[in-house]
């Protein structure tokens, strides 16, 4: 077997005979006692369940939801009773890793408080007892957002290069690698799970053939694999994203004379309007989008708006009689609020000009029988307005 993970083979061996682990047990001693032929450069892969048991992370199971809440720093998504949450470690997983399997009835297992620290302490204990340099990976089971089924991933690591950065390298054809970064700790966790299984009571495996990934120092641990909120394109579930949108600050003050991204404007309008003229309630209310410079600029000038504003949406109604007009105004008001909120999602600001101000300037873009309610100019917020929010 080669020490080069790119060219060699690996051997994964289960560690058999480890008894039921209790709070306070010396886990390193138990693993060392039952591990045979561990060599320098091996990686010991340990289920988080026995780590949690040894660390006393077992609680009464009469209120599972309370246990999940205690381990949750952020709810990512909910559907029925199922919650995907972020734990204090930064992991995004179902039920915060709270587990009722492979534990006494009426009990629940929580994840280790600091699984990287658990891996470091376990590595020190194993090194002392085995007399060789090894790596340690602590694992737990995760689902995946785009795949069915579950797999084991690393939640703690020590003495293992958890990820490699290949950006800037070239492939066999000379193409530069831009985003390639193999997550070795997760790959090791998945390989070990093939021999540990979910119900065979085999909580430890030894992976041999990856000595090139075993380091002298403990390293940064699995924390290096946790994606930051700024880099997370899927930070919230659909329902939670809608809730978050309701809390966004909206810019409805004067616009700055600053150019904005046309794609942002197009996305904001298409989410609400969809077409240049949107009609609601059988045509009783609607909106006309004005973006062409030939028509837009004279309107902006007439209203004293910055010429850099890329779009104007004119909200209008068509109604005869007071009851119908009231209903139409309510519909038009709802459309205006959706437009403002959609712009906020895209980081845009809006300035609303009621019909008393905008009516004469925008009437030319409306159907002959339409009554303007007002115009919504879209662009960038003035710095003072942003600071005030």
Topology:
Elements: E1 11-15, H1 27-34, E2 43-47, H2 48-54, E3 58-60, H3 64-71, E4 72-79, E5 82-87, E6 92-94, E7 107-109, H4 115-130, E8 135-144, E9 147-158, H5 184-196, E10 204-208, H6 238-246, E11 255-256, H7 262-272, E12 277-280, E13 285-290, H8 293-303, E14 311-317, H9 322-345, E15 349-354, H10 355-362, E16 371-381, H11 383-388
Parallel strand pairs: 2-8
Antiparallel strand pairs: 1-10, 2-10, 3-7, 4-5, 5-6, 8-9, 11-16, 12-13, 13-14, 14-16, 15-16
Helix pairs in contact: 1-4, 7-9, 8-10
What does this structure look like?
By secondary structure, the chain is α+β, with helices and mostly antiparallel strands. The protein folds into 2 domains: 11-239, CofE-like (60s Ribosomal Protein L30, Chain: A, 2-Layer Sandwich); 251-388, NADH Oxidase, CATH 3.40.109.10. Helices cover 31% and strands 25% of the residues. The longest helix has 24 residues, at 322-345. The N and C termini lie far apart (62 Å).
Compact summary:
The protein has eleven helices and 16 strands. With 389 residues, the protein is α+β, with helices and mostly antiparallel strands.
């Amino acid at each position: 077997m080669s020490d080069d993970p790119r060219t060699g083979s690996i051997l994964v061996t289960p560690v058999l005979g480890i008894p039921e682990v209790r709070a306070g047990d010396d886990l390193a001693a138990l693993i060392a006692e039952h591990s045979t032929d561990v060599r320098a450069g091996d990686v010991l892969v340990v289920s988080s369940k026995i780590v949690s048991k040894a660390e006393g992370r077992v609680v009464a199971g009469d209120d599972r939801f309370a246990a999940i809440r205690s381990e949750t720093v952020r709810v990512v998504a909910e559907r029925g009773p199922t919650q995907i949450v972020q734990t204090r470690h930064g992991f995004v997983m179902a039920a915060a890793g709270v587990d009722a399997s492979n534990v006494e009835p009426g009990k629940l297992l929580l994840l280790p408080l600091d699984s990287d620290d658990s891996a470091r302490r376990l590595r020190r204990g194993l090194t002392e007892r085995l007399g060789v340099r090894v790596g340690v990976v602590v694992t737990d089971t995760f689902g995946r957002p785009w795949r069915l089924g579950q797999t084991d991933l690393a939640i703690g690591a020590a003495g293992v290069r958890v990820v490699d950065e290949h950006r800037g390298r070239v492939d066999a054809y000379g193409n530069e690698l831009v985003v390639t970064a193999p997550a070795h700790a997760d790959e090791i966790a998945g390989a070990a799970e093939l021999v540990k299984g979910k119900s065979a009571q085999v909580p430890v495996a030894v992976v041999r053939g990856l000595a090139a990934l075993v380091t002298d120092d403990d390293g940064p641990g699995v924390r290096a694999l946790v994606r930051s909120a700024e880099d997370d394109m899927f930070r919230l579930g659909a329902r939670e994203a809608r809730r978050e949108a309701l809390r966004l600050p909206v810019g409805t003050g004067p616009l700055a004379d600053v150019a904005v991204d046309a794609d942002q404007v197009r996305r904001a309008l298409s989410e609400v309007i969809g077409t240049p003229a949107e009609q609601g309630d059988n045509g009783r209310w609607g909106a006309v989008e004005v973006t062409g410079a030939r028509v837009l600029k004279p309107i902006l000038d007439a209203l004293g708006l910055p010429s850099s504003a890329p779009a104007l949406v004119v909200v209008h109604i068509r109604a005869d009689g007071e009851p119908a007009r009231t209903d139409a105004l309510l519909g038009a008001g709802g459309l205006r609020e959706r437009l403002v909120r959609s712009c906020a999602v895209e980081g845009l600001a809006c300035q609303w000009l009621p019909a008393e101000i905008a009516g004469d300037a925008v009437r030319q873009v409306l159907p002959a029988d339409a009554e303007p309610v007002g115009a919504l100019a879209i662009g960038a917020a003035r710095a003072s307005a942003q600071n005030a929010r």
